[in-house]
Design a protein that fits this description.
Immunoglobulin-like, 2 domains, 4-stranded mixed beta sheet, 20 strands
């Protein structure tokens, strides 16, 4: 039996289905891979929770995602809707994230949560999405400067509808789960450019953004178009500044704990005399 340790506590890989077993075996074979199987990656995570705050008595502020690298377990405390710090990974292109739960005996165990195909080696942004039904999905995108160059703005359509996006004078239709790179054009380093997003529906076109956007020729920006948290019929977008990442030593993040709404609903008691 193989036992892992996290914060000096024994962890057992517990599997309840054959598909889960296959996922874990694929990850663990990275300990003795062939040269063709080894690849080096640097990645950051964006966690998106479509169920967040949807009629719950507690608020999930993010997700605790665990992964294996070099035989060690590391944790990413990924706040919802934000870009995590950088982590390194060496192994097969199929990276598996795990969740930690207690089994019937009260022991901590790691269960496969979602896997992602990283593709070719390099720098990646990994989207981890929990949909309205609670299922997890994950996608990896290249953010190396050779593929996502300075002075560009990338728009990723994570919705199931075609969207029209205008950056400056360039307009394009972006299909579901597709991305488009826009080249910024200006003699100035920092400037404001026209920015508009339209959602194409069967009987109408909805404008969800139409304004000036601050951009820089020496930086990169990623815009993700997606459904609103807790609202399956409304669209919005999130913007992220993408900086070049460099390999560094992996250090686990602290646990992210859900916020209990009851703590914020109780009246605050003021000291006497105030």
């Amino acid at each position: 039996m193989m036992v892992y340790f996290l914060r000096h506590k024994p962890l057992k890989i517990a599997l309840f289905a054959l598909c889960c077993l296959n996922l874990v075996e694929a990850q663990l074979t990275a300990q003795n891979p062939t040269k063709k199987e080894i690849a080096n990656y640097t990645f950051r995570v964006i966690y998106m929770d479509y169920q967040l705050n949807a009629g719950s008595k507690s608020i999930r502020v993010g997700a605790n995602l665990k992964f294996l690298d070099g035989g060690e377990i590391y944790q990413i405390g990924s706040y919802a809707g934000t870009l995590s710090r950088s982590f390194n990974y060496s192994g097969p292109a199929n990276l598996i994230f795990y969740k930690e739960e207690l089994n019937e005996g009260g022991e901590e165990q790691l269960l496969p949560l979602v896997s992602v195909n990283l593709g070719s080696p390099g720098q990646k942004v990994i989207l981890v999405v929990q949909d309205f039904s609670g299922d997890f999905h994950s996608f990896a995108y290249d953010i190396g400067v050779d593929k996502f160059k300075l002075g560009y703005l990338q728009v990723l359509n994570l919705s199931n509808q075609t969207v029209g996006v205008r950056i400056g004078e360039e307009k394009a239709m972006i299909a579901p789960m597709k991305a488009k790179n826009y080249k910024l054009k200006s003699q100035q380093n920092r400037f404001l450019t026209r920015f508009a997003i339209a959602v194409m529906e069967e009987d109408a076109t909805s404008i969800i953004e139409n304004r000036r956007l601050a951009v820089s020729m020496k930086k990169r920006k990623l815009i993700i178009i997606h459904r609103k948290t807790g609202h399956s019929d409304e669209m919005t977008y999130s913007s992220f500044a993408i900086e070049e990442t460099w390999p560094t030593q992996n250090i686990s993040d602290d646990d992210l704990e859900a916020l209990d709404l009851k703590e914020y609903q109780e009246p605050t008691k003021m000291p006497d005399g105030l």
